[in-house]
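Subject: mismatched residue count in predicted assembly?

I count 1123 residues in my input, but I want to confirm that the predicted structure covers every chain. Input:
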Amino acid sequence: MVRYKHIVFVLILGMGRSFAQSERSSSIAGRVVNSVTGAPLHRATVEITLEGRDDVRGQAGTEGDGQFVLRALPAGRYRITVTRPGYAPMNYGARRPNAPGQIITLGANENKSGLIVRMPALGAVRGTITGLPVAAKHPRVVARLVEGTTKYNFGRGGTVDRSGEYHIDGLIPGRYRLSVGYSAVPRRELFPADANIDLNRRYTCYYPSTLNPHEAVLVEIKPGDELTGFNVVVQEPAEAILGIHILWPKDVAIPKPAPGAIPTILSLQTLPSGTLQDLYVGGQVIVAGDERPLYRNLVPGRYILSGTAQLQGRCYSTREEVSVTAGTPIVELPLRPCTDVRGRVGISGASMLPANLTVTLRSLESAPVNLDRSPLQPDGSFVIPGVPAGLWSLTLSAIPPAGYLKSVMLGTLDVLDQPILITSATVSRLDILIGANGAEISGRVEEGVATMILAEAEDAAVSTPGRYATTSVDEQGNFRLAGLRPGAYRIYAFEDIEPGAWLDASFLAEYRDSGKAVQLKEGPGPRIALKAIPGDRPPAKKGAL
Amino acid sequence: MQRRFAVLFLAVLGAMAQKSPGKLSGVVLDAAGVPVDDARLHLVDQDGRGVDLFRSTGANGQFQFSDVNPGRYFMTVSHYQYPGPLGGPQIGMRVEIKPGQEMEGLKLRFSPPTVVSGRVVNDEGEPVGDCQVFISPVAEQEGSTSRVYTGTTNARGVFHIDSVAPDRYVAFARCNAILPTEHLLDVVPRSGFEARSSWMPVYYPDSHNRSGALPFAAAPGLDPQLEFHLRATPVNSLTGPLTAAPGVTWQEPVSMEIYPADAGPDRRFATLYGSSEGPAGAFRIPMVPPGNYRLVATTRERNTDPPATASFPLTIGSSAPPPFPIVLRPGIPVSGSAEDSAGSRLLQPGSNVSYMVESTPAGPVRRTVVAPVGNITLESVDPGSGLYAPSADIAPETGRFTLPAVPIGRWRIRCRSNYDLSYVESVIFDDKRVEGAVIEITEAPAPALRMRFAPKPNVNYRLENLPAGNERKWMVLAVPEQPMTTEQDDKVAEGDPGSFAYTSRIVPGRYRFVALESDFAGTRDRAPLLRILTPKVDPIEVQASGRQSVSVRCFTKAEVDKAIQTYLYGDTPPPSAP
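Triage response: the counts match. Full output below for your records.
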């Protein structure tokens, strides 16, 4: 006799993405308040999502006293998110914005109440910019969020008005690097006569007055802050001139473009590396066949020059690491054909590769080429044609939920979790192995209240995000992590932690003893008990990236 | 011989001295004394036109006119960041260049720019960010260039609009934030939840209708510091099928908008836009608050065919209306004829014929070109409606015309006659005389339209209170009290200095007459000036026939400037008046 539960389960799957209308007899009620003053927040949007189903949602607004009720809910596991203009979005159960929240388990005929969501008010910063050169155009101030060592793209900007004042609002509480950027045409007298100059030059200076992003003093925004007096005194950088000479391939004829037609171009990126990594320099375009060296004025330091062009329907690329110092060195960049990367995907622990698996290479050096989704042949082999020289990161899509990336080898080089360097000399094959049965670990936080569970792979020699996994807990403190690569791990339960904080190598060192060491093999793992680590992260050191 | 030569020589020298050009130079500064880049200087002669010497300042604010013939000029200085009162140039002054004179070192200073700032708060006194605030001059004339300024509120609900022309305005705020409402747990489409509540757009300070808007003045030193109060309102989506009357097809997306029924010429910022999916699909206009609206839909094909349209009033309540259809119908042709009466001679055989010689490969060919005697346009009676009816030319000799496609609705007729001595005396539609030249098109076929022309009367203008020793040219401006069926420029006469009376033929009707100096009034948009001056004179009725004499009050530049100051600042003097 088939049990009722199983029939319902099959029906849900069978109807594709429909949502079974089971009995709706439960509800969740609570209150939304300002995280600092405790004042109730009216007209906040409370959204409830069924766990694992992004498209099954409900919504309610808060009343004048901050109260909300989510009615007519079926039993299940849910997440709740609250948003409101003027405040940072918060997940229920999280201590800070952008952190995952707590899962709520709801039974049939259950009316849960008393949930409290504390929302931090957004902050603002203002100040005056002085020292802008007379020829500066389009000055713009940007505040960029710094969290752990993750390079965040979240930033808010503002224009600089006639009297040099700026004002940026809508800032989520956190630490920011403040910078002012402006465009200026470089001074002609720095360059050799008749030089082909890159006129598209954007300069950046950091608060309070430095060209080095590492020396920037971070601005701390607390909820509802309206900070004033954050003035930036602009410094003009010392210029070092670099000449770039593209060596076009001799065996390829480059036709002159017809009048009005778009000429063939080479797209050149100049990427600061090492200490200058965070500096924005920008790319430029060189018309195919142009033999003149192109001159750029740059802050002295190390750079990676990489360029891509499509000549006669084939991809050509070039890549060199240069050190820019005083004087005017000329760097020669020979264009060579792009590489066709061949490889094969295998799976261990299952007989067949999952359907719809694709291999994607994503450029870590802003190459202007899309290399998405190369599909696999039935035997798992693939070719990604025309890959320009550079650093790439590999992603596999449609790995089954319990599966994990077991190994990636470029010939004999282990490139699992590493950026993959492809050059015109690369002939090795990319061998990718998926493990069908990832390691799994579950448990409960027995002491204290945790908002985030962190699993750190012990062999994480370099701080790469891929070697950490996180999840949240439910009201009983239960948690579960799946699809992990087998190996030695240390599991931590944090009461409150900044997302990405663990990527700073020195951070986890302080909490090592509070984590539990486990050895994980493929398949279900042990059930462990954890103790929550209290408090939050100490403030970052000045200039931490 | 020598003496004659000497006399000739002296005469030549004298003539040269008369004509030796002068120089004019100086610098343009802002209110703080900083030189202004890209200020435009314009030198016009006594007629308000003709000379057209024009310079811009560079980064150092300097300007120079080096080849100026001696004479009297009016110089204006304008800059887009320093607009002048009512949209004209901020600085206007008379200069006289004597022969060979070098006027150097002029310092021209702009007043501080006018700022309109304020706050938008909700019914709980909390600031509302990301709201759009629009301001537009209070009595915007139909057809004058629109000067709408806009700003956006920041997170503290504050907006700041810079470089506004000093004038009186009405303001409107619209915030598109979606306010939360209850949606029970269910599968949600990718586009998210349907918006059911938002902020009601308001005219300052808190009126839903244009009629309740409170005008305010903005001028240097006079920032009105507007505070808007918002209330929440339910909003609904309007949906339904978009269908075509027989014979109508389209490919480009149909333009669809609804606007408050009383919006008037500034309906632009109160308009809500909708979208349609594909040919003969469905339409959707999201987030519509309750109110009385007019819906206008038009096809927008890239060819020159007249559009198919739909236009009807719509009342929306608080709950979602059921789907309703929009049917796009083609325009209806309206034919008619112009007729002469009472001595009008609009239609003269052979009058509009001219010849043109054209070179062709076969040799020069003479072509006969027959120009129309006039042109008929229709304006929608619904104020600010986006509906458009293509115009028609009036054929010479027969006077016939055909308006090819007039959408259903009410229209006011406007006629431009190429023969200056006639005007439209009456309009007859469906054999009935029409009041105010407004006709209603309901269905095809449309009845015949007849336009009767009569000769314009002769009017003599007597300028009153001319300043003593007047040496300037004056223009007489006639501002009609009723909409004009026959197009007529507001300038009806212009005369030489010293003469007290001018004459012209104008369309009969009720007018307010005003005389202004040509050099100062000739180069700018006069409509805002007239708006301020006409209340100071009494209306006069110009009869249809017989010679008439009309008194016209003169306003010198100084009097106009004072009238503008009073309009902006009231009777109290402005703060830190220059």
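Residues 187 and 297 of chain A are 9 Å apart (CA to CA). Marking this ticket as 'not a bug'.
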